[in-house]
Amino acid sequence: MVRVLLDRRGRTYAEEAGIRLSDRPGPLYQLLVLATLLSTRIRACLAVDAARELFAAGYRTPQAMEAATWQERVDALGRAHYRRYDERTATMLGTGARLCLDRWHGDLRRLHREARGDPAGLRRRLTEFPGIGPTGADIYLREAQAVWSDLRPYVDRRALAGAKRLGLPGSPDRLAGLVEEPDFGRLASALVRVALGEESAGEVTRVAAR
Q1: What are the residues whose beta carbons fall under 8 Å from the beta carbon of 186, sequence distance 6 or more?
Q2: Cα separation of 45 and 13, whole Å?
Q3: Per-residue pLDDT reduced to its tens digit, 61-108
Q4: How far is CA 178 from CA 62, 70, 125, 149, 208, in A?
Q5: Separation of alpha carbons 50 and 25, rounded Å
Q6: Is the dihedral of CA 178, 183, 189, 190 positive or negative?
Q7: C-alpha angle with apex 22: 178 to 168, nearest 5 degrees?
Q8: Which residue, 7, 46, 65, 113, is most buried by CB atoms nearer than 10 A?
Q9: Are 74 and 43 in contact (CB under 8 A)?
């Protein structure tokens, strides 16, 4: 079943947004932007499209995000049809970029080192960014575990809900035993898609039973 799930939905949200995730300042900041966009009550596909538009406009670093005008950020979000929350989100992205620069000199590896890899400490620091609540912090850490190996296995509430729908184990360690370590982030994202209804648990089960 896990093999079928990864074949069908084995891309992380970062990959879909065009983020080449690595332990470097640029990709780690881009993931923060994506987590901010995914935190609103909007379809995940629209949030991913909005991230791609922002990055295509050149706003891939906190310096570039802050240097853009509020209207330029609104326009980029609008091109991706991220309109319901565009004005508020444009403000939060500007404020968050300034915080990233002031607090961590634009390098979220500093945040990771400051928290010493402790998930609770990381979540607390991430929620200091405007627009990032507990759910947004979970999104960030679920995706970041691909490059911050000390987080693995990181499973949030939504991923566990997806696992339950598929009849898979309900603990992070048991889920981690189903895949190679580097693939765990992909599995967690795929389980979230099941929980959100982006992938049918019944269809995955049916295909796996063939």
Answers
A1: 6, 10, 11, 12, 146, 179
A2: 9
A3: 999 999 999 999 999 999 999 988 889 999 999 999 999 999 999 999
A4: 37, 45, 31, 17, 15
A5: 20
A6: negative
A7: 15
A8: 65
A9: no
